[in-house]
Design a protein that fits this description.
With about 500 residues, the chain is mainly α. The chain folds into three domains: about 260 residues, no CATH class; about 130 residues; about 60 residues, no CATH class. The chain is built from 22 helices and four strands. The two termini are about 25 Å apart.
């Protein structure tokens, strides 16, 4: 009987309808879970409501418990209602649920409140009223108020008109709620007097493109790409070896961001241990969801262990071992067919997970993005490649350490003939694998870095997990070493399994 037929028999023996349904349910829950958890980490819950609640509570408090300082009480009774009104206006805007702490609408609102504070003191000074500034020391408006105190009446009136005009402009910009109009206003300010909240010599050309394209939302991916580039943050490491890798990673991120901006493309970059992309500028795409396929390796490992961890020991417990091993088929062919079945099992489950992720990503974020090119940094330049071709090639690469675990499970099943021991040991190694880089770098357990176990969750390595990088500082291990040790584990474990299986005596 050909090996292919033996492999087919393994699928027939090991897969029941209930098992298929069970695997699909677990994969569906895993796909939904990994997607929703990622979205939750970068959710943009509005800070408008939070800040509004704070000001309303503060206003209620000063009404119920008046301050002994009359000046402070009058100031709060003037400022807080204007603040509350300004924030309530923000809640009427169409996309207010997407505002974060740094949104331009909130920035202008805070600037407007600061200007209202100045108006309060201008009126006080014009009316020749004494103002004590001791209670204002904690306020960011203090320096502006001190400047006002040195102006004469005519200068105060001029300043009052200027402030009122600025407030009207802010109100108009907030009411229109068009990001490009706000940018246009900031550019004109910068060109006229060199002062702007966001514009400087290095970024004016990029922001001018926002005006040219008439981009209405600050949450547009083109705008967020610009913000990401302008706020590019990188982490330094002590090791020269790690710094070399970090330098390459920084160049990759920067180049991809620049390419994405120039060509108006959504990238699918994510944070890692080297580059920290501010979560305020993060946006979800279908690609970013499907990229989580590599993080599902732990789910794949657990499923394969539960469904096939007893592939050899089960024959012993069921009493079918003698019949199989005394059949006309050579023992090495029988064992090889079981091993091929387990490896195919890994890829079948992984490709099903990839399909489910793609469907779920398409429903949530649109299918078109999945058929746009993947941006990769190769040979010191950014190139566009087919996204799914990239994912599949990377998946085969990431699967090598997973197969090393599967081969280890296969060996244990062959040697011990005890399903409980095999599954127990394999599950323990699978569960602890994601945490091992932390323990290695935290407690300097260097020898663990030279075993295959930390590499089972290989997505942590290719994504440059911060604990993996810190481990590299004192071990000098590399991604290629992880592949080498995984391949070595596969070869050694399979040879041991083969020798044991061929030499085993079969008793009645």
């Amino acid at each position: 009987m050909k090996i292919i037929n033996l492999v087919k028999c393994e699928f027939i023996k090991n897969y029941t309808f209930k098992k298929i349904i069970g695997v699909l349910i677990i994969l569906i829950f895993s796909v939904v879970g990994v997607t929703e958890s990622q979205e939750y980490c970068f959710s943009y819950s509005s800070s408008v409501t939070t800040e509004l609640d704070y000001f309303e509570n503060e206003y209620q408090f000063i009404l119920e418990y008046p301050s002994e300082d009359v000046d402070y009480q009058l100031y709060q009774e003037y400022i807080l209602p204007k603040t509350i009104s300004a924030y309530k206006k923000l809640l009427t805007l169409e996309d207010c649920e997407e505002f974060n702490y740094g949104s331009w609408q909130l920035t202008l609102t805070r600037e407007k409140i600061s200007l209202e504070k100045q108006l309060y003191f201008i009126d006080k000074y014009l009316n020749k009223e004494f103002v004590s500034l001791e209670w204002l020391e904690h306020d960011e408006a203090l320096s502006a108020v001190k400047v006002l105190s040195n102006l004469n009446s005519d200068e105060l009136l001029v300043r009052k008109d200027e402030i009122n005009n600025i407030i009207k402009q802010y109100d108009l910009l907030i009411t229109e709620n068009k990001f490009y109009k706000y940018v246009e206003y900031e550019i004109s300010k910068y060109e006229n007097n060199g002062v702007s909240l966001i514009i400087n010599d290095t970024n004016i050309s990029m922001f001018q493109e926002i005006v040219n394209k008439k981009i209405e939302s600050e949450r547009h991916y083109y705008v967020l790409n610009i913000y990401s580039l302008l706020n590019f943050v990188s982490t330094g490491y002590d090791s020269k070896y790690v710094e070399k890798i970090a330098k390459e990673e920084k160049a990759k991120y920067k180049s991809i961001l620049e390419y994405a901006i120039k060509n108006d493309i959504k990238h699918d970059l994510s944070n890692n241990g080297i580059v920290d992309m501010n979560s305020d500028y993060f946006y979800m795409t279908s690609k970013k969801v499907v990229n989580q396929i590599f993080s599902l390796s732990i789910v794949i490992m657990i499923l394969v262990i539960l469904t096939s961890g007893d592939i050899v020991s089960k024959e012993h417990s069921l009493g079918t071992e003698r019949m199989i091993m005394t059949s006309p088929n050579k023992r090495w062919k029988i064992l090889l067919s079981k091993f091929i079945y387990m490896v195919l099992n890994v890829y079948i489950m992984w490709f099903i997970a990839l399909l489910l992720l793609s469907i779920y990503a398409s429903v949530k974020y649109g299918v078109i993005d999945l058929f746009t090119p993947k941006l990769i940094y190769f040979n010191n330049k950014v190139i566009e490649v087919n996204y799914y071709l990239y994912i599949i090639i990377k998946l085969f690469y990431v699967s090598i350490p997973v197969i090393s675990l599967i081969t280890l499970v296969f060996m244990l099943s062959t040697i011990t003939l005890n399903t409980t021991i095999t599954v127990g040991i394999a599950m323990a190694m699978t569960v602890i694998s994601p945490f091992l880089w932390y323990f290695i770098q935290q407690f300097k357990i260097i020898l663990l870095a030279y075993t295959p176990i930390p590499y089972f969750m290989f997505s942590q390595v290719i994504n440059l997990n911060v604990n993996y990088l810190k481990t590299m500082e004192f071990t000098m291990i590399s991604e290629s070493y992880g592949i080498f040790i995984s391949i070595l584990t596969i070869v050694v474990c399979y040879i041991i399994s083969l020798v044991v299986y061929i030499k085993r005596d079969v008793k009645n």
